[in-house]
């Protein structure tokens, strides 16, 4: 990871994960604003998808070490 | 292992270049008591100055993330004192050998048991000759033989302590219900959490009919991960869920439970997906088989990486006290470091709960997928 390609790769992973998390969070906020009564279900789904994305990002960071 | 910080320190590289020199030195000092020069020790250089350089900080964090054979709360580097307690070492190597880790003197001494000499080097036990010489390959990895090490290490000890804590807590909760439906004392804290796991995690994901059978596993995993994560935030230096072997074990439980509770529909959906054309069934089968393994794999990686990253960040920011001493001044570096550490620690408090929640939630989701009864069209 200390090599320059490794660091660039880590940066790319973080950018990708950040975009993904932003999209999930933004869509969830929109959905909650439209249907505040469904906020609990939307939050649960948001956290699950966020966790899956996070697992992928961490997996990439570790495998790309 | 995850390497968020450069793992090989300057000292380690020096060792590599000087291993021959050290070897000579070691034979030279053969008759002396085991003094510091007799064993090439990576903490030797700058030993009296405390933690100063970035390399030492990196090494210190690596040391924290790894497992050790003794439980050290803090060390007085200048005096060479380590405050903590030793843990038993159990080696299987031509019979069972049990002794306390204090005999190693934190890696400074070679221990002779039977005909074999053992040496503690970077948290691992190697078989060596009487001087404790470590041979290296070209990547600076020791090539000495290792005995089968079944020791009660720091992590094993922490797991045992946490098990006892959980046993006491939940026995008191269970006993409370014999006297009436309303819990008393600390059980009032635990009951809402148990109900949270039941109503928010198990019931919606596994289904009303079958969730009861899996509650034992889900509650155990939830509270084990949560209590372990919380204890990891204390200055005790426990790092159990940041150890990949522990998370592999936890994910293995989920994997085995999912496979053994899977019904006919579950296996049919893996090997012969209904409702798609035959060529598609053949293509989907290997993907679904791969999916069987990637689900627990993502579970174990997520928990391990989150906790490792959290500990690394907290310790890295704490190290600002030493690194930023010259540029910020003593007071400034302590202030910046403590403020940021407090900030990260509060986030970690949330992460500790969130990871326990996610692990339990996804486990119950996978179990739910395996036991689900499908409507047959």
From TrEMBL, chain A:
GO terms for cellular component: proton-transporting ATP synthase complex; proton-transporting two-sector ATPase complex, proton-transporting domain. It is a multi-pass membrane protein. Its main location: membrane. GO terms for molecular function: lipid binding; proton transmembrane transporter activity. It comes from the Bacteria. GO terms for biological process: proton motive force-driven ATP synthesis. Residues 9-63 form the V-ATPase proteolipid subunit C-like domain. SUPFAM superfamilies: F1F0 ATP synthase subunit C. Belongs to the ATPase C chain family. This is ATP synthase F(0) sector subunit c. It comes from Wenyingzhuangia marina.
From TrEMBL, chain B:
It is found in: Cell membrane; Membrane. Keywords: ATP synthesis, Cell membrane, CF(0), Hydrogen ion transport, Ion transport, Membrane, Transmembrane, Transmembrane helix, Transport. It comes from the Bacteria. GO terms for molecular function: proton-transporting ATP synthase activity, rotational mechanism. Gene3D superfamilies: ATP synthase, F0 complex, subunit A. Residues 1-49 are annotated as: Disordered. Its main location: membrane. Residues 1-13 have a biased composition (Polar residues). One of its GO terms (cellular component) is plasma membrane. Residues 14-44 have a biased composition (Basic and acidic residues). It is a multi-pass membrane protein. The chain crosses the membrane at residues 156-174, 214-234, 240-258, 270-293, 299-324, 336-359. Pfam families: ATP-synt_A. The keyword Lyase does not apply. Belongs to the ATPase A chain family. NCBIfam families: ATP_synt_6_or_A (TIGR01131). Key component of the proton channel; it plays a direct role in the translocation of protons across the membrane. This is ATP synthase subunit a. The lineage of its organism: Bacteria, Pseudomonadati, Bacteroidota, Flavobacteriia, Flavobacteriales. The gene is atpB.
